[in-house]
Design brief:
Elements lengths: L1 E2 L2 H9 L12 E5 L3 H5 L3 E14 L2 E18 L5 E6 L5 E8 L2 E6 L14 H7 L11 E5 L9 H10 L2 E7 L8 H16 L3 E6 L6 H6 L14 E2 L2 E2 L6 H17 L4 E4 L21 H11 L19 H9 L2 H22 L9 E2 L1
Parallel strand pairs: 1-2, 2-7, 8-9, 9-10, 10-13, 13-14
Antiparallel strand pairs: 3-4, 3-5, 5-6, 6-7, 11-12
Helix pairs in contact: 4-5, 7-10
């Protein structure tokens, strides 16, 4: 691929198996206000624009910001050029390309940055859109499927495209299928059959203690609590109390249905953790502190774990490191119990299917 300054592009292009060279090529990259850019029809005007944020056609909602804004001329483009990236407010073109003389030209207003992706995160996509063939192919890639983004897509089409892209395995958002639903279940069965035809293994991806939207709405008594004793709805995950026996039994029954209703190749217990991104310093996001956890903590630790967040209590986390350390170790036990229950459920599902089907590929991660 011909580039006027190969060193500026090597790290980006080499990541997908392309080589940046200065010799003539059918596919050229030209940058800014340069002689090759002007020869291709990309010329600066007298107008200037301060570039700090960008909008890309690949994801118009993605906010792209430059760490160091630049003042750049607004460029005029040759006829037929396709704009991929613009300055967010003015709409001034920053990345564009066109087909020419049996090849293609990609133009960028600036160099891509030292690492190749600092300024234009979708450059590789723009190259592919212009016809660049990427030589690297990985036949062992795994992908994640969020059903909410694909509910109107044809499963056979999806499986075929994944196979063509080298996808070997698929992780499916299990919370969308936790409760039986005829339409959703039929869609998933069609997808699983299509993936089997394409040789793609399919795992169910669990997000416990997030179970499902319906479970959260239908079982308000099972909602996990934060240190402020609020329902633990943190970001998109809505956490369920897995310590309380009645709630744990409801979740296990739902998991038994989910794991045996479909012919999964495996289960990924992906994120079985307690949400507390900022530790005890942010009690509004700290879990688990449901009534069941507090009662069990009082019995096993000798104090109500909620006292860890009371500055007037002898157990306050900022002063009593021993109490805090004991509590940190305490909630691990429910996770081990849930993982053990899942293993038992998966064994039941394998036994129900019979030992021969995909026996070498079944697992629980």
């Amino acid at each position: 691929m011909q580039v006027a300054e190969p060193a500026e592009w090597q790290s980006l292009l080499s990541a997908v198996g392309l080589e940046a060279v200065a010799e003539p090529s059918a596919f050229r990259i030209v940058v800014g206000d340069s002689e090759p850019a002007r020869a291709a029809g990309f010329a600066p005007t007298l107008e200037k624009v301060r570039v700090a944020s960008l909008a890309d056609v690949r994801d118009s909602d993605l906010e792209i910001f430059w760490e160091k804004p630049l003042e750049l001329p607004v460029f005029s483009l040759p006829e037929g050029a396709r704009v991929f990236t613009r300055e967010a407010r003015s709409g001034a073109p920053l990345v564009a390309g066109l087909y020419r003389n049996g090849g293609a030209v990609l133009w960028t207003a600036t160099a891509p940055g030292k690492g190749g992706i600092e300024r234009y995160p979708y450059l590789i996509h723009a190259l592919a859109d212009l016809g660049a063939e990427l030589p690297f192919r990985n036949d062992s890639t795994w992908a994640f499927l969020d059903y909410s983004y694909r509910l109107r897509a044809d499963p056979a089409y999806l499986a075929r495209r994944w196979s063509e892209a080298g996808i070997a395995g698929l992780q499916v958002s299990g919370w969308h299928f936790f409760e039986p639903d005829p339409a959703r279940d039929a869609w998933l069965e069609t997808l699983l059959a299509a993936c089997r035809r394409e040789g793609i293994v399919v795992y169910v991806w669990l997000e416990l203690p997030h179970v499902s939207e319906a479970f959260w709405q239908n079982n308000p008594d099972c909602r996990e609590k934060t240190a402020l004793q609020q329902d633990a709805q943190l970001d998109w995950r809505k956490l369920v109390d897995l310590v309380e026996p009645v709630c744990a039994a409801r979740v296990e029954r739902g998991l038994a249905s989910l794991l045996t209703r479909f012919r999964w190749d495996g289960v990924n217990v992906a994120e079985l953790y307690f949400e507390s991104l900022h530790g005890p310093s942010d009690p509004s996001r700290f879990t688990p502190l449901s009534a069941a956890v507090r009662e069990r903590g009082l019995h096993r630790l000798g104090f109500d774990p909620l006292a860890l967040f009371d500055e007037l209590s002898p157990a306050f986390w900022g002063q009593n490191t021993d109490a805090w350390g004991r509590f940190v170790d305490f909630p691990r036990q429910p996770r081990a119990r849930v993982a053990g229950a899942l293993l038992a459920l998966r064994a039941q599902a394998v036994a129900a299917d019979g030992p021969g089907r995909h026996a070498n590929r079944r697992s629980l991660r």
